[in-house]
Design a protein that fits this description.
The protein has 597 residues and is mainly alpha-helical. It has 36 helices and no strands. α10 packs antiparallel against α11, α34 packs antiparallel against α35 and α35 packs antiparallel against α36. The chain is globular and about 70 Å long.
C-alpha cells in the first residue's frame, strides 16, 4: 500500500514538474508575443490579482527581456494604475527615449512628475525637450501652462507646435480664447487651422460651436454641415440646433441634401425632425429605415409612440428589446409609466421583469421604492430601498426610518456606517437624525467641530438647519455672515432669496436674485440660474407675463442646456392660453431631455 502511494506520489510530482516547465515556457512565449500589444496591460491586471504563482513582478522581468520598447510603456501604465508614480515615471522616460514624438507618453510623464509633487521638474523637463526642437514637447508644455492658467505662455507653445500639430494646436489656442471671450481671435485661429489642414472635421466642429455659442445660428449650421461632410459621425449638435430654433423645413432639406451628397443614411435625423412636427407616420417610416441596429430602432420607435402619448404601443416596442434576455426594455417601461404617474402599470412591469428575468435591475428596484414612497406606503418603500444598499439609496432609507420614527433601525445603520470607515457619512446622517429629533444645538455643535469643512459651508449648513426648525430670523442672521467673496456672495444671495421665498416674501427674494445679477458675469449667472428662479417666483404669484419674460431670457442665455426649462416655459404658455406654443415647448422638452442626439 505504501509503495503504491509512493509511486502515485512520484508520478504526480513528475507531471507537476513537466507542467510547471511547460507552463513557464508557454507563459514566457505569451509575454514575448504580447509585449508589442497593449492587451498585455489588461491581462497583467488579471495575472496580478488572480494567478498567484505568476506574480506581475515576474511578468515584468520577462517583458523587459522581450526587448520591446512598448513593454516600457505598458509597465509604466501598470505602475500608474497602482499609483506607484516613481516606478511608472522610470518606464515612461525609458519609452520616451525611442518615442520622443509620442504626445500621450509626454502627458503621462508630466502626470507622474505632478503626482510625486514635482510639477516644476515636470515643466523643466518639458521646457528642455521643447528647446531641443521637440514640437510634441512644446504641445505638452502648452497643456501644462494652460492647466496653470498661464494662457500667454501656453499660446506661445502651441504656436510653435502648429507646424507639426496644426489641428491640435489650433483647437487648443481656440479654447483658450473661448475662455477669455476673445471670439474674433478664436474664429481666426480655427480658420487658420482649416487652411493648414482642410480635411479635419474637428476644426469645423469647433468653429460651429463658437458660432453657436455666439448665437450666430446660420453660420453655426453651415459649419456643422461642413464638419459632417468632412467625416464627423455625430450629427447630434446640428439636429439639436434645428430643434431649438424650430427650423424643421430647413432641417429636412439639410439632411436630404447630405444624404444625396454623401450617399449616407440620415433617416434617423429626418425621423426626429418629422416627430418634432407631429408627423408620426413619416417619422416612424424614416426611423424604421435608419441604419441603426434593431435594438436602437426599437428604442426610437417606442419613443415616437411615447411622444404621441400612445404608451401601450411604446411598451410593446420596449419589450422587443428583451429578446436577448436583458431587462433594458422593462426598465424603460417602468420609468415611462412612473414618470406619467401610472404607478399600477409601472409596478406590474417591475414585477414582470422580476418573474421573467429572475431579478430586477437595481434601477427598477429603486423606482418601485419611489412609487411606494410617493404613495406614502413607507414600509413597502423601505423594503425595496433596502434591497440595494448603496450610497444613492441611503437618503431614501433614512428618510423612511425618520417618517416611521424607527430610530433604533436608524441608529443601527449609523453604527454600520462607522464600522465601515465612513466617518464623514456617519456624521452627515447623525446630524440629519438630530435635526429630525429637534436637537438643533447638538447638530450645530457637531458641524462646528468638523475641521475638514470650510467655514462658509458650515455657515450655510447651519442656516439650513434653522430653516428646517422654522427659525427664519436665525437663518437670515446666519446667511448674513457669509463673506463678500464672489463665489460665496453668489451662495449668500441664493440662500437668502430661498429663505424669503419659503416665507412668501417674494419681492425680497427677487431683490436678492437681482443683487446676484448685478455682481456676477454672464457665465456665472447662467450657472446659478437667477433669471430662471425669478421667473418661477413670478409664476408662483400668477404673474405669467413677467414669468415668461425671465424664463425666455434665461433660456437664451443658457444656450438651451437645461432641458427642464422648456417644460417650465410650456407651462407658462399653457396658463396664458397659448396652446400652440405650449405644445412646441413641450415637444422640445421631450426631444431634448430624452437624449435622442
Amino acid at each position: 500500500m505504501k509503495k503504491k502511494f509512493l509511486k502515485v506520489f512520484e508520478v504526480t510530482m513528475v507531471i507537476l514538474i513537466v507542467l510547471a516547465v511547460f507552463g513557464y515556457g508557454a507563459f514566457e512565449i505569451w509575454v514575448r508575443n504580447y509585449a508589442e500589444h497593449e492587451k498585455i496591460f489588461y491581462e497583467a491586471q488579471k495575472i496580478d490579482s488572480k494567478i498567484a504563482p505568476f506574480k506581475f513582478q515576474f511578468m515584468m522581468k520577462l517583458a523587459s527581456k522581450a526587448g520591446s520598447s512598448k513593454a516600457n510603456r505598458i509597465l509604466g501604465d501598470y505602475y500608474l494604475l497602482k499609483r506607484k508614480y516613481k516606478d511608472a515615471l522610470i518606464y515612461f522616460l525609458k519609452y520616451s527615449e525611442s518615442h520622443k514624438n509620442d504626445l500621450w507618453n509626454l502627458g503621462k510623464i508630466y502626470e507622474c512628475y505632478s503626482k510625486v509633487k514635482n510639477k516644476e521638474q515636470a515643466i523643466k523637463w518639458l521646457e528642455k525637450e521643447s528647446s531641443k526642437g521637440n514640437l510634441t514637447a512644446s504641445l505638452a508644455l502648452g497643456n501644462a501652462y494652460r492647466d496653470d492658467d498661464k494662457f500667454l505662455a501656453a499660446i506661445k507653445c502651441y504656436e510653435r507646435a502648429i507646424k507639426s500639430f496644426p489641428e491640435k494646436a489650433c483647437i487648443a489656442i481656440a479654447k483658450i480664447y473661448r475662455v477669455q471671450k476673445k471670439y474674433d481671435n478664436e474664429i481666426a485661429i480655427l480658420e487658420k487651422g482649416i487652411k493648414l489642414v482642410p480635411g479635419k472635421w474637428q476644426l469645423y466642429l469647433e468653429l460651429a460651436r463658437t458660432y453657436h455659442y455666439q448665437k450666430k445660428y446660420d453660420l453655426a449650421i453651415n459649419k456643422y454641415i461642413a464638419a459632417i461632410e468632412h467625416g464627423c459621425w455625430n450629427s447630434g449638435s446640428l439636429l439639436r440646433l434645428i430643434i431649438t430654433r424650430c427650423d424643421y423645413k430647413k432641417g429636412e432639406k439639410i439632411f436630404l441634401n447630405l444624404a444625396k451628397k454623401m450617399g449616407k443614411n440620415f433617416q434617423r435625423e429626418l425621423g426626429i425632425i418629422y416627430l418634432a412636427q407631429s408627423k408620426y407616420k413619416q417619422a416612424r417610416k424614416a426611423l424604421k429605415s435608419s441604419n441603426y441596429n434593431e435594438e436602437f430602432q426599437f428604442d426610437d420607435i417606442a419613443f415616437s409612440y411615447k411622444f404621441q402619448q400612445d404608451y401601450s404601443q411604446a411598451a410593446q416596442y420596449y419589450l422587443l428589446k428583451n429578446n436577448d434576455n436583458r431587462v433594458d426594455g422593462y426598465y424603460a417601461i417602468v420609468k415611462m409609466y412612473k414618470n406619467i404617474g401610472k404607478f399600477d402599470q409601472a409596478l406590474f412591469y417591475a414585477q414582470e421583469a422580476e418573474s421573467k428575468q429572475g431579478a430586477m435591475l437595481p434601477e427598477i428596484i429603486a423606482m418601485a421604492g419611489d412609487i411606494y414612497f410617493e404613495r406614502k406606503d413607507y414600509k413597502l418603500a423601505l423594503e425595496y430601498y433596502k434591497k440595494i444598499f448603496r450610497r444613492s439609496n441611503l437618503d431614501k432609507i433614512t428618510e423612511c426610518y425618520l417618517i416611521l420614527k424607527d430610530y433604533d433601525s436608524y441608529e443601527k445603520l449609523l453604527v454600520k456606517m462607522k464600522e465601515k470607515g465612513g466617518s464623514d457619512l456617519y456624521l452627515e446622517y447623525k446630524i440629519k437624525l438630530l435635526i429630525h429629533q429637534g436637537k438643533i444645538n447638538n447638530a450645530i455643535e457637531i458641524i462646528n467641530s468638523l475641521k475638514h469643512i470650510p467655514e462658509h459651508s458650515k455657515i450655510s449648513y447651519i442656516g439650513t438647519i434653522y430653516i428646517k426648525a422654522k427659525n427664519y430670523e436665525k437663518a437670515l442672521a446666519q446667511y448674513q455672515k457669509l463673506a463678500q467673496d464672489p463665489e460665496i456672495f453668489a451662495v449668500k444671495c441664493i440662500k437668502i432669496a430661498e429663505l424669503y421665498e419659503i416665507q412668501g416674501k417674494y419681492e425680497l427674494a427677487i431683490k436678492s436674485y437681482e443683487k446676484l445679477l448685478s455682481k456676477i458675469d454672464d457665465d456665472a449667472i447662467a450657472e446659478k440660474d437667477p433669471l430662471y428662479k425669478i421667473g418661477l417666483i413670478y409664476y408662483k404669484q400668477g404673474k405669467y407675463q413677467q414669468a415668461l419674460e425671465y424664463l425666455l431670457k434665461d433660456l437664451e442665455q443658457d444656450c438651451c442646456t437645461q432641458t427642464y426649462k422648456y417644460k417650465s416655459i410650456a407651462e407658462v404658455y399653457g396658463k396664458l392660453g397659448l396652446k400652440n406654443k405650449e405644445r412646441e415647448y413641450l415637444a422640445k422638452h421631450m426631444l431634448l431631455s430624452e437624449k435622442v442626439f
